[in-house]
Amino acid sequence: MWNIFITSFFTFVAICIKMKLSAADDCKGCVQLDSYSFDKIIPKFKAAIVKFDVAFPYGEKHEEFAKVAFTTRDSFDLLVAEVGVKDFGNKDNSDIADRFNIKKDDYPVVLLFIQGKTEPHRFIIKKDTEFTADNIKRFIKTKSGVYLGLPGCVEKLDRLADQFKTSNDKDRQEILNKAKVFQETLPEEHRTAAKVYVKTMEKIMERGDIFVQTEQTRIEGLLKGKLSNDKKRSMEERRNILHSFTRRDEL
């Protein structure tokens, strides 16, 4: 009887260790934070995206968050981290969850911390927003200003879009001219994206900033319909470019 107990105990421990290692391995690039390291590490980055979850996370949402870590691995301004919260034993890290009013029933909860700001932004799944890597990255990019290259986007044109959305009409015309000149220097595979940036700037100058919102709504509607894979990818890339023109206070 005692031997059976010992064998079962060590089997249980081995499974727990394997799950923990597997969880870490499944989220390459994620920094595992706890009650002791959280406040030491978070403030050191321009932005930190943190997922609060069960101690051994799994499933589609965990996999999507892992994609965020993997695809942003070259961004030194952004920390991608996880906090595993236990509701048993010593209840590790439950104090951090309590601090940000995070409930177990809401897991996984994703918070974005901005350097110098006391309150984090919470990634909220809306009617037309799914828990995907691209949506989380758009959320980070819009709220923090940290540059993250989304599919279909061109970094220099993203920088010009960022200037464009906060400029007056005179400066906007100059930025539009720069975008047109830069468009001609791009290789063929980036010309289609560049045309979207230029066209968006022209439409905003013609119709006002409301164009971005109405165009986003139109594209979201199209994406809900039946599209070929190529058309869907094209619409998603166009949506990513439009997010470059979205002001931070609009999300």
From TrEMBL:
Residues 152-245 form the Endoplasmic reticulum resident protein 29 C-terminal domain. The keyword Phosphoprotein does not apply. Residues 27-151 form the ERp29 N-terminal domain. GO terms for cellular component: endoplasmic reticulum lumen. Keywords: Endoplasmic reticulum, Signal. It holds the Pfam family ERp29_N. It comes from the Eukaryota. GO terms for biological process: protein secretion. Transmembrane segments: none annotated. Residues 1-24 form the signal peptide. This is Endoplasmic reticulum resident protein 29. The lineage of its organism: Eukaryota, Metazoa, Ecdysozoa, Arthropoda, Hexapoda. The gene is LOC105363619.
